[in-house]
Amino acid sequence: MRLARGIRSAVIAATLIAALAACGAEPRGGAERMPGELSDGASFTAVDDAPAAPSLEGELVDGTPVDLDALAAGRPLVVQFAATWCTTCADQEAALAAVAREYGDDLAIAIVTGDEQPADVTAYLDRRGLPYPVIADPDLRIWRAYAVTEPPATALIDAQGGLVRVWPGGAVESTMREQLDRIITG
Amino acid sequence: MTSRATRAATCVAIAIAAAALVGCAGASDAASDPDLQLVVRDGNLRALGDACAGARPFDDIHPGAELVLRAGDGADVLTTALPDGEAVKIDDIDYGNAPRVPSFCRFALTPTGDLPDGPLTVLIDGEVVAEGATVSDEGMVFVPPLADVTGKGSE
Q1: Domain assignment of residue A40, given as a range
Q2: Strand B36-46 and strand B101-109: pairing?
Q3: Residue B55's closest CA among A160, A181, A168, A69?
Q4: Share of chain A above pLDDT 70, in %
Q5: Is the CB of B53 less than 8 angstroms away from the CB of A168?
Q6: Do A169 and B84 make contact, defined as CB atoms within 8 angstroms?
Q7: Which residues of A fall within a CB distance of 8 Å from B54?
Q8: Does residue A6 lie within any of the structural domains?
Q9: B94 within some domain
Q10: Is B9 inside a domain boundary?
Q11: Residues B40-95: pLDDT tens digits?
Q12: What kind and span of H or E run contains A79?
């Protein structure tokens, strides 16, 4: 009888711990943040002579393998190169949020973080509540492919995978909108 | 020109260049210049006055990283977390309307004691990023260090 009570208590405790762990496991920059369905009637224009964008092959912070096709999912993609210690990057989150709101599902946004410690990134994502997929790039392989020497930097890739622009120092909202209006036509 | 004369001329040219570099890197506002500064000579394009971190290949030098200045006798004379850097100009060239110009990234530091006259080793997060750095008269520690144009360092 005492043994049965002990087992029951252990099961309840384990269930509680599992439930609490699940509550704490909010998706942070992982697969849950990948773009959804394209909106009906979405149409995009390719930029003439845009070179093919460098590879974005890597892993999200939750270990999900991704590449450019998966991150863009058939629409233009804004790639923000950032790091948790970069104060200017934090300042630019408002600009990203503004274009995300305006273009909705017609635009994909991803962050490539150069942080070396995954715990720093997840803590940062928890704190800032960023709703984008985040690629971990501790070796700065993707940064270098996009000639990023210092964060922030912003890249814009059209729906056909052409590299439209890279803004060292990061893009301001009006500049991003100007380019996005050219390539998001639907 | 003899080789000695050539060498002397080269030394003078390097000394002038180094002096200009020191002058420009601290050229923002002498009244507000901190007592001690870590100046990363990365030459990256930035808007002057913007917050910055060391650019490649100095990308380990960023806000929050632990800086240690170690004297020749092995004593740590300063240990601190780096604040935001500030982009400062490196020359007096007129770049017109260019929003971003070649710059260094300068970190303002607060010395916690006397700094030695001799060479310092600069460590970031435990890794040596510069050896033989010295504190200039203006309180600047350069990474990478300026060349020793006096020749004393090789004696």
Answers
A1: 29-183
A2: antiparallel
A3: A168
A4: 85
A5: no
A6: no
A7: 150
A8: no
A9: yes
A10: yes
A11: 999 999 999 999 999 989 999 999 999 999 999 999 999 999 999 999 999 999 99
A12: strand A77-82
What is the overall mean pLDDT for chain B? 82
Which of A120, A149, A172 has the highest number of chain B CBs within 10 A, making it the mutation to test binding with B? A149
Residue B113 domain-assigned? yes
* Burial environment of residue A175 by CB neighbours within 10 A (0 to 12, 13 to 18, 19 or more): middle
Residue owning tokens 């890279």: A166
User: Would residue B25 count as lying in a domain?
Assistant: yes
Task: Tell me which chain B residues have a C-beta less than 8 angstroms from the C-beta of A168.
Answer: 45, 100
Residue A9 belongs to some domain of the structure:
no
* ipTM above threshold 0.85: no
Range of the domain at B65: 3-146
User: What pLDDT digit, counting tens, does each position of A39-51 carry?
Assistant: 888 899 999 999 9
Please answer yes or no on whether A150 and B51 come within 8 Å at the CB atom.
no
The mean per-residue pLDDT over the stretch A99-114 comes to: 95
Q: Is A79 exposed, middle or buried (0-12, 13-18, 19+ CB in 10 A)?
A: buried
Predicted TM-score (pTM) of this structure = 0.79
Measure CB to CB from residue A150 to each of B52, B65, B84 and give the nearest one.
B52
Q: Search chain B and give the residue with CA nearest A153.
A: B46
How many domains, in total, are found in chain A? 1
